[in-house]
Amino acid sequence: MNLINHVLDVNILPIGGGVFISDRAAAPTTNSLDSIIRDANGCAQFVGGLAPNFILLDWVNVGDGMKAVDKLNGF
């Protein structure tokens, strides 16, 4: 079982360590099939070439998350 955390945060208070929240405006791009697959393929090199079969997303109802999971799981 492999899991990736595929999120994009925006710093809303760039003081000290900052305050980061999910970037809702970028969710369609961040959660696109291409973006998720590219991230998954980048992670695969660290676990023996196996792509993740679970993806953690912010705004799971936006974008192609389910399509990406299906593709990564061979469906």
The best one-word shape is globular
What would the average pLDDT be, to the nearest integer?
91
Counted beta strands: 4
In the residues, how many domains can be counted?
1
N-to-C order of helices and strands: EEEHHEH
What is the SS-derived class? Answer: alpha+beta
Q: What value does the Rg take, in angstroms?
A: 14 Å
Uncertain parts: none
Summary?
This protein is 32% helix and 19% strand. It is built from 3 helices and 4 strands.
Topology:
Elements: E1 3-6, E2 9-11, E3 20-22, H1 27-30, H2 33-44, E4 54-57, H3 65-72
Parallel strand pairs: 1-4
Antiparallel strand pairs: 2-3
Helix pairs in contact: 2-3
Characterize the structure shown.
This protein has 75 residues and is α+β, with helices and mostly antiparallel strands. The chain has one domain (3-72). Helix content is 32%, strand content 19%. It contains 3 helices and 4 strands. It has helices at residues 27-30, 33-44, 65-72; strands at 3-6, 9-11, 20-22, 54-57. The chain has a two-stranded parallel sheet. Strands 2-3 form a two-stranded antiparallel ribbon. Helix 2 (33-44) runs parallel beside helix 3 (65-72). The radius of gyration is 14 Å and the shape is globular.
